[in-house]
Here is the input.
Amino acid sequence: MEQEVRSHLENVQKRIEQNRGKASASQVEVKEALEARKPATADKIAEWKAQHETSKLQSRADGAERYAEAAIVVAPATVDEAERASLEAWLARHDADSEQAKKA
Here is the structure.
């Protein structure tokens, strides 16, 4: 079982490394998008609609699409990190329990 977990961990780590650049860039985009969304309150958006400010509405829509695209990249990267953490925790517990059993 331990060897299977180590092998799976190795595969997860390779996947994380392969996607690291794209995931990092997307994390920056997500943070920027969240900051950009703050000024666009519901009242402000209603005002843009009432005044037919299509350029502001289009800009908001473009930003929302970029945010969604970035979040789609970040989500599986986060799951990979969680999987790695779980596998590492399992191995750490296994090591501790194995050593404890040797003492008994």
In short: Residues 54-103 form the longest helix (50 residues). The mean pLDDT is 95.
